[in-house]
Amino acid sequence: MTTYDVKHDGTPVDDVLIADLAAEAERGYTADQLQGRPRGRGPPPLADKVKAVGSVRLDAQLRAQAQARAADDGVTVSEVVRRALREYLRSA
Length: 92
Known about the structure:
2 strands, mainly alpha, about 50% helix, about 90 residues, two-stranded antiparallel sheet, elongated, single chain
């Protein structure tokens, strides 16, 4: 039996687990089963606030600094930019 990875709770991801999960998915889920399930990867939602997506041009050095700060803080570069903008606007 091949072990491919380990889940966050330490459970090995092996052929048996994959077969069990595939069988469960093939049986399907009800809406009740899907509600309240934890989100997958990606940034957390910004609550129920209206969101706008924008882009910012960063030179390579600034981008690298933002990535390093994001890694240090355990957040995304987008969150670093939001925090910096909030701080800048507060100080104005």
